[in-house]
Amino acid sequence: MNVLVVSPHPDDETLGCGGTLLRLKEEENKIYWLNITNIKVEYGYDKEKVEKRKKEIKLVNESFKFEKYFDLELCPTKLEQYDSNEIIQRISEIIAEIRPQMIILPSRNDVHSDHKAVFDWCFACTKIFRHSYIKKILIMEILSETNFSLPENSFEPTYFFDISNYMEEKINVIKIYESELGEHPFPRSIEAIKSLGLLRGISAGVKYAEAFKIVKFIE
To answer: What Rg, from alpha-carbon coordinates, does the chain have?
Structure first.
């Protein structure tokens, strides 16, 4: 199975489904990563920080052993300035190249506006009459974004991956994004990541799990 994860920002892929990606890879599926935004000097970011982020992404790529990494390198928090038709075309071309059977997306209900835009763009590229090979579309749960949505948009999972054997490796990968982590009770803390895994594991009857919402599931 070809699996594509789409992250609005680097770290979302690991927070949302890092354990699942590690498990899918070990089970001999091919995993791909499409990242939408990134920091650049021309966007006003410090050169040192930009270079550090490049090194982080390289290490994350190596950790997950992605078949291929794609990066649109759009400006974070400024996605409204882009032509949606042009971005949808670029994403559609990537999907056509990969031909994924499973796509993992951020939630449209996440509090960050980038997540909403990314979901809309990607979902527009998944019409079954254009890409009949897409059989599964899942929404991932991203700490610090999904859990801060409005109450009426709360995340109610309908699909779980047992990641009991992959939690420690997921933690090792997320530690690569050193500047994105913080101390408890910061939502992107090691304690929070493990706690959410434990909570979802209770629902799934396992030690650790990652939770998703099903958008499409064709068998």
So the answer is: 16
Q: What pLDDT does 89 receive?
A: 97
Peptide bond into 185 cis (omega under 30): yes
> What 8-state DSSP symbol labels residue 150?
-
Dmax of the chain from CA atoms? 48
CA distances from 96 to 83, 90, 132, 150, 196 (A): 20, 10, 11, 34, 34
Contact 131, 125 (CB under 8 A): yes
Residue 92: closest CA among 129, 122, 135, 128: 122
What's the one-letter identity of residue 171? I
**Of 103, 133, 83, nearest in space to 7 by CA:** 103
pLDDT in tens, 109-118: 999 999 999 9
SS3 66: coil
Q: Alpha carbon of 102 to those of 144, 149, 165, 174: distances in Å? A: 24, 25, 22, 23
pTM to 2 decimal places: 0.97
Q: What is the mean predicted confidence (pLDDT) over 104-129? A: 96
CA distance 39 to 18: 22
Instruction: At 135, list the tokens.
Output: 């059989």
